[in-house]
Amino acid sequence: MPELPEVETVKETLKRQILHRQIMDVKIYYPKLIEYPTSTEFKQQIIGERIQDMKRRGKWLLFELDHYYLLSHLRMEGKYFIRKPSDEVGKHEHIAFVLDNGEELRYQDTRKFGRMHLILKEKVEQQKPLSELGLEPWDDRLTSSYLWSIYQKKRLPIKTVLLDQRIVVGIGNIYANEILFLSKLNPYTKACDLRKQDCKCLIQNIRQTLERAIQLGGTTIRSYTSSEGVHGLFQNELYVHGKVGEACPTCKTAILKETIGGRGTYYCPYCQK
How far is CA 109 from CA 67, 147, 237, in A? Predict the structure, then answer.
């Protein structure tokens, strides 16, 4: 599943391709991808809008239009591609935005898990889904005191709490495993048992890990690529994720894989006691 670095990579890729293009029409082949408003209203409102900018909030792509924000969550396998109108519509291409330069921006999603919202600019921060999101990793308000005050109320494993987008956005399973390894925290540790110093260390490693992943275009695993075959390279720098049975890069102990909160969790039992 694309996490913050992958969505950031998609954003920057699309920015080079579609900025200032006007949406002349939209073809909706699978209306259930549009969560708000209705597919009919979506089409009526978006036609004629021009793409002014591309932004990101957490794992959401934000297409800034003249009067609206088009919010797009890629979920498991969502991707965007630029195509010619004459190109055959693929089996998994569910929405096509017809642009004023004669090209089409097509949304492809094998599993159909992705979601889109079209919200007026002045309401986008007060309305779901953005209204439910926590702080960005580089927000100045993200301090050890902020994390510690929230974690004191959480008796769940820190691995599970790291994935809570209502606290800090953009961290998914891959990066949570890496962040905990760098922080020398056992993924089973209850969030409420963390010290302020642990929270400070977490913040440093959240930022360091995500910044490095963005520099490398994200992590390309399984079927995920960002757009037009853009492959990330961060998978070459993973310490523990996907490395069950391999030697820990620090102490050479075998990496374990267990399930915490339904998510595959990789860690070193020695370094992360």
Answer: 27, 35, 27
Quote the CA–CA distance of 254 and 70 in Å, as a whole number: 45
H/E element, 41:
helix 39-46
Give residues with Cβ within 8 angstroms of 212, minimum separation 6. Answer: 234, 237
Q: Read off the amino acid at residue 37.
A: P
Number of neighbours of residue 228 by Cβ within 10 angstroms: 12
Give 187-213 pLDDT, tens digit per residue.
Answer: 999 999 999 999 999 999 999 999 988
Measured CA to CA, the distance from residue 80 to residue 78 in angstroms comes to 7
Amino acid at site 24: M
Q: Using one digit for the tens of pLDDT, what is the confidence trace for 108-148? A: 999 999 999 999 999 999 999 999 999 999 999 999 999 99
- Rounded Cα distance between 235 and 264, Å, is 16
Cis omega (within 30 of 0) on the bond before 129?
A: yes
pTM of the model: 0.90
| Backbone φ, ψ for residue 188 (5° rounding) | -80, -15
Q: Do residues 47 and 25 lie in contact, with contact meaning Cβ atoms separated by under 8 Å?
A: yes
Active site residues: 2-3, 59, 263
Cβ count within 10 A of residue 42 = 23
**Strand stretches in the chain, DSSP E:** 23-28, 34-36, 53-57, 60-64, 68-73, 78-83, 93-99, 104-109, 115-120, 256-260, 263-267
| Count of residues making up the chain | 273
| pLDDT tens digits along 72-119 | 999 988 999 999 999 999 999 999 999 999 999 999 999 999 999 999
**CA pair distance 74, 57, nearest whole angstrom:** 13
